[in-house]
Specification:
Blueprint: H1 4-10, H2 16-22, E1 30-32, E2 38-40, H3 42-48, E3 55-61, H4 71-84, E4 89-93, H5 98-102, E5 110-111, E6 114-117, H6 119-123, H7 129-149, E7 156-161, E8 165-167, E9 177-179, E10 190-192, E11 194-196, H8 201-208, H9 212-220, E12 223-227, E13 232-234, H10 241-248, E14 255-259, E15 264-267, H11 282-291, E16 294-302, H12 303-318, E17 324-329, H13 331-337, H14 350-356, H15 358-368, E18 374-379, H16 386-398, E19 402-406, H17 408-411, H18 417-427, H19 443-455, E20 459-462, H20 464-475, E21 483-486, E22 506-515, E23 520-525, E24 544-545, E25 551-552
Parallel strand pairs: 3-16, 3-17, 4-15, 4-16, 8-11, 17-18, 18-19, 20-22, 21-23
Antiparallel strand pairs: 1-2, 2-14, 5-6, 6-14, 7-12, 9-10, 12-13, 14-15, 22-23, 24-25
Length: 555
Amino acid sequence: MLSDIEIAQQAVMKPITQIASELGLREEEFELHGKYKAKLEDSLYRRLTSKKDAKLILVTAINPTPAGEGKTTVSVGLAEAMAKIGKKAVLALREPSLGPVFGVKGGAAGGGYAQALPMDEINLHFTGDFHAITSANNLLCALLDNHIQQGNSLGIDPRRILIPRCMDMNDRQLRGVIDGLGGKSSGVPRQDTFCITVATEVMAAFCLASDLMDLKARLGKILVAYTVSGEPVYAHDLKAEGAMAALLKDAVKPNLVQTLEGTPAIIHGGPFANIAHGCNSVRATRFAMKLGDYCITEAGFGSDLGAEKFMDIKCRLAGIQPDAVVLVATARALKYNGGVPKAETSKENLAALADGIANLGAHIGNLKKFGVPVVVAINRFESDSDLELTYIKDYCKENGADFSLCEVFAKGGAGGTDLAEKVCALAEKPSEFHPLYPDDAPVREKIETVCREIYGADGVDFSSKAETSLKEIISLGGDHLPVCIAKTQYSLSDNAKLLGRPTGFRVNIRDLKLNNGAGFVVAYAGDILTMPGLPKHPAAENIDVGPDGNITGLF
């Protein structure tokens, strides 16, 4: 059996100019990045502004195993399957972060015969967007510390700096550091932190911005610190937003690539859904909605994270709404939710499947609360038994959920035509979409609504630190913003060990942060971290490159 990268390396890609031509792009509306990648210009969107929007299809999942359940694979395969049944679909996906690529979860370009190409480039440096975002964030940090070093005319309190440095890598060693050591010329010594690039507010603002000027305005609104007298300090006060936007002027252009079967894919932006809002850029989605009849996009991890944030943050701020939702479920994830260790999920275990399948029911019920029709994509793995697959199908029938057995990993688009037909039929139904909570609900109420309605919690407990942060957020006018709850992806609760459909628990909010530039409030639940670490045997150990430049071991 071929590995993902071997399949990708054997593929014959179309020149990206051909993909662009098939989409009806003019030569001046895209910028080449090599033979198989291009960036899309604003002039393209302006030309298509009056064109009717495509049907918007969201792909999400149940709570996963640590290896993921193939949500991106299903997204890619669904787009390929749309072409098989004569529909014009365009993908809108997130860019992979180097952290998972070299860690345990793997990349984010799909897998098997449902991949976005060139897979190795997408999973590594791609077009440099993440490096630009990292540089813009760290420029802001450098300007802030330099301001303190050069006399601190704003009176910034070094103990109340809110903006962390970042890098796009899992490096637990940098979660807490002391910097500015080495004497007066080396800065003011202070405690500092690093987060992974995908968790930064710069990434969130980048993904929610409508254009470069909107992004610059959002960057200027980032709350970076407080003064010794308790006054807020924003990036604009440091005159930072212009230079930050200059670093991002090319990155803000969405990236056009293709799938293994030549379906167009726009891949842009990439916040994690467990520690950020988990969706590709608004710009990528809008471009895809103008270029095709169906836009297929995804939101990270389970529907309790990515899909909820897609509905309550991205749709609210971008003025878009989904026409149908695909909920990816796997037998192995349901067995994992039934208590089976990750290493044993490939073995048939109907008892564990029965114990864990309530997790699927919870996600079906949660998605229906947004008023959008749902179809369950049963993503088939080679190890799945017929008895297990039949059990999942029967459960879907009993719970009034449409379903489709999805085999896109092994068969590409041909393995997803039934799913594509069902998605198209669902998307034609009248939409009754609505977010979970109203705009004017207080932040505390919004958090409690998500925790009760989506997680199934009995209630929410706010730490004293969270209560203090909430008062500050309210005083700064942030009480009207949507909320982004950062929590574990492995459980509906804030405790990764509570699998299946946990009950009788309360969510613990340890702190809150105003992401003023992005336009939402982050609530940190449980022990979620914004800088992941590497596993005992990271994927990086298996990755290599030969004298011909060919990469091996990349999934």
